[in-house]
Amino acid sequence: MKKLLFDYIPLILFFVVYKVAGMHPEAAYTVAQSYLGSLVAGAGLQADQGPIMLATVTVIVATVVQILYLKLRGQKVDTMLWVTASIVVVMGSLTIYLHDENFIKWKPTILYWVMALMLAFTQFVLNKNMMRQVMETQVKLPEPIWARLGLAWIAFFAIVGAINLIVAYVIYPGNLDAWVNFKVYGITALFFVFVIGQSVMLGKYMEEEPA
After folding, report:
1. Which pLDDT does position 206 carry in this prediction?
2. pTM surpassing 0.85?
3. pLDDT band (50, 70, 90) for residue 154
4. Which of 200, 176, 196 lies closest to 14, judged by CA?
5. What is the DSSP string of the chain?
6. In this structure, are residues 115 and 154 in contact, taking their beta carbons and an 8 Å threshold?
7. Rounded Cα distance, 74 and 68, in Å
8. What's the CA gap between 162 and 170, in Å, rounded?
9. Contact present, 55 and 21 (Cβ < 8 Å)
10. Angle CA(8)–CA(85)–CA(50) in degrees, nearest 5?
11. Domain extents for the chain?
12. Is 50 exposed, middle or buried (0-12, 13-18, 19+ CB in 10 A)?
């Protein structure tokens, strides 16, 4: 639970800053223009872009601070955190520099598709199962089930990445508030339902520890 909360800190801060800034759009624009104006290309920010710009810089800083925190405590930084941080910094920086919200909208999709590709590459090319490496200390499963579990996560990440684009550009085109709500509540709910369903399905395959 503690690690889960730690992982979600940047997302929580992104959501809080976006919502609070959205309640005070004029002040958000003033702050964003004052502190980020020199980083923006072209004519500068539009009047309604303050909330997403402040939320974006917040998630970048929070993610970098996560890594620095772990490093200072001498703890290992997981590969997925490095991947997440890289995508957040690149897509977030493009969002700010080009003052274009499309980059931050694409960030979850790129992240999930990269995860799917990494899982597929390790499982089918390197003959290693990343999900087994992560979960084996907590769960004992028969060998064939580990392969199915890896495939399930590959499919899940690929599908969630596609759903993010559908929500952003088909269901709610131009509605940034709706997409932010989906990013926080919708994607989190999808993960929760998938993990619960996975746990139920795997229960009958779990090997009992010897007495």
Report:
1. 64
2. yes
3. very high
4. 176
5. -HHHHHHHHHHHHHHHHHHHHHHSHHHHHHHHHHHHGGG--TT---TT-HHHHHHHHHHHHHHHHHHHHHHHTTPPPPHHHHHHHHHHHHHHHHHHHTT-THHHHHHHHHHHHHHHHHHHHHHHTS---HHHHHHTTT----HHHHHHHHHHHHHHHHHHHHHHHHIIIIISTT-HHHHHHIIIIIHHHHHHHHHHHHHHHHHTTPPPPP-
6. no
7. 10
8. 11
9. yes
10. 75
11. 1-100, 102-211
12. buried
Do the beta carbons of residue 145 and residue 111 sit within 8 Å? Answer: no
The amino acid at 49: Q
Q: In angstroms, rounded to a whole number, what is the distance separating the alpha carbons of residues 175 and 152?
A: 31
Name the token pair of 46.
């539009």
**Which amino acid is residue 180, in one-letter code?**
V
What count of Cα atoms within 13 Å lies in the side-chain half-sphere of residue 85? Answer: 15
Full DSSP string of 98-134: TT-THHHHHHHHHHHHHHHHHHHHHHHTS---HHHHH
Token representation of residue 44: 């500068």
CA–CA separation, 14 and 54 (whole Å): 8
**In whole angstroms, what is the distance from residue 103 CA to residue 105 CA?**
5
Report residue 1's pLDDT band, with 50, 70 and 90 as the boundaries.
low
> What are the structure tokens assigned to 171, written together?
């269901």
Distance CA 190, CA 153 (A): 12
